[in-house]
Design a protein that fits this description.
CATH topology of the largest domain: Immunoglobulin-like
Order of helices and strands: HHEEEEEEEEEEEE
Structural class: mainly beta
Shape: globular
Number of domains: 2
Mean pLDDT: 77
CATH architecture of the largest domain: Sandwich
Distance between the termini: 107 Å
């Protein structure tokens, strides 16, 4: 029986076959894997990974963050802190969260007040007076002094203060507060000190707000 002569490949096919033979095996494996991964994504294969739920804390729970350990304790509505120069605009009231904070870092930690973004605690789902969600003030509970920087290893009970329209929160309302954390990015090059960023929600606590009327002792 006469065997058939080998099939002659055209010039372009010969060049393509030559290039294929010279490709490293790991390139071929990577290419196939990419194709299979893309097909899996198109078919919904990557949608099966569940998103972990946000941890829920109870009032009084202590959360140890990267820089600042915080223990939110209670939330209330008051008319103002006139003895400390904190009085809301007409038609507004103050939403106050009492919390114990401790700086567990090696250097003093500044807590943002009156800024564009909060850095430790933020109310969720309610209307605030003004465009920012950081507290308008942070008052040391007990002596009434305003605090912006927390010294290392010194627990301080403070009042986080937000200004809210009078109708946005009422006595007995449940209000969620997100507890924020940040990531250590290393030592800063432009200015002295350590650098932190990537603020994210580490958990949340829900308080039943109590209306205390004229104010609280602090």
């Amino acid at each position: 029986m006469t065997s058939k002569p080998p099939v002659e490949l055209g010039p372009w096919r010969q060049r393509a076959r030559g290039l294929y033979d010279r490709l490293p095996t790991k390139w071929l494996i990577t290419g196939v894997s990419a194709v299979l991964l893309g097909a899996s994504a198109l078919l919904g294969g990557l949608d099966d990974v569940p998103t972990p739920p946000t941890p829920q804390f109870e009032p009084g729970d202590r959360y140890e963050a990267t820089q600042l350990t915080i223990q939110p304790e209670s939330a209330s509505l008051i008319d103002g802190f006139p003895e400390h120069g904190v009085t809301p605009a007409e038609g507004n009231r103050l939403l106050v969260v009492i919390a114990t904070v401790e700086n567990t870092w090696s250097d003093p930690v500044r807590i943002a007040t009156g800024s564009t973004e909060p850095d430790s605690l933020v109310p969720v789902g309610i209307e605030l007076a003004g465009e920012y969600r950081a507290p308008i003030d942070l008052i040391v509970f007990g002596d009434g002094t305003t605090v912006a920087t927390v010294q290392p290893n010194v627990p301080v009970q403070v009042a986080y203060v937000w200004e809210v329209p009078a109708g946005s929160v009422a006595d007995g309302d449940d209000v969620r507060f997100d507890v924020l954390d940040r990531e250590y990015q290393g030592e800063a090059r432009i200015y002295f000190g350590d650098r932190f960023s990537d603020f994210h929600v580490a958990g949340y606590v829900t308080f039943t707000v109590e209306d205390l009327g004229a104010g609280v002792s602090g």
